[in-house]
Description:
The protein is built from 4 helices and 5 strands; from the N terminus they run βββαααββα. By secondary structure, it is α+β, with helices and mostly antiparallel strands. The termini are far apart.
Amino acid sequence: xxxxxxxxxxxxxxxxxxxxxxxxxxxxxxxxxxxxxxxxxxxxxxxxxxxxxxxxxxxxxxxxxxxxxxxxxxxxxxxxxxxxxxxxxxxxxxxxxxxxxxxxxxxxxxxxxxxxxxxxxxxxxxxx
Length: 128
């Protein structure tokens, strides 16, 4: 039987109008502490977002989403949050917020490979 490892993940959502509560899934963050893994995949549908909010500044959305990637990889451009421990970075990223970028509740599972699992969740829940 293969080695299985616990992981947690959350979906990144773009919510162009917080009052309307409509959103487009734009990424997945996955954390597997046992294998020292924290990463995310990001992709969003500009056409769908413009359909929800024609005046949306796509460059701002892209910038905010890229910050999640920088924090996952401890990129210095990710600011002070990127210098926290892996678990602290994940906790910060999945904390509830009421901004244009929101995060789903955290879900858990077991996997052999967190990278492969991240790709599978991304394909299923974000990519068309």
